[in-house]
Design goal:
The chain is built from 3 helices and 4 strands, in the order ααββββα. It is α+β, with helices and mostly antiparallel strands. It has one domain. Strands 1-4 form a two-stranded antiparallel sheet. The chain has a two-stranded antiparallel ribbon with strand order 2-3. Strand 2 and strand 3 form a beta hairpin. The chain is elongated, with a radius of gyration of 18 Å.
Amino acid sequence: MRYPDIQRQLHEELDHVIGRERLPTLQDVESLPFPQATVYELLRVASIVSLAVPRSTTTETNIWDFTIPKDTIVFVNLLSVHHDPETWKDPDVFNPSRFLDGAGQVIDSKFLGEFMPFSGGRRKCPGEAMV
């Protein structure tokens, strides 16, 4: 309701690809770039959890000017990552098109290191494969 243009575009793409005779299936995802980009944008804006699952450093680690000692518990602030103005243009604006390339196709989220809706690393959420 807050974004009628986005809602209209979603509806048009669903009608064009799926029609009104059936419900969408997982096999349709590849043919629905704008709805898929909208889900990505929802995950970015909402940041389902604001802090990732805590991790522990296995060695002394340097990040920028900071030294993090071995065996330190580390939290990643996912909300901050997803709303960083140095990474995301107008981070507080809901814009699914940021996940589409120039041809209107979905940018593979694996290539967006700044997009971490399910945390990161080897132990991120197994549900990520569903998106």
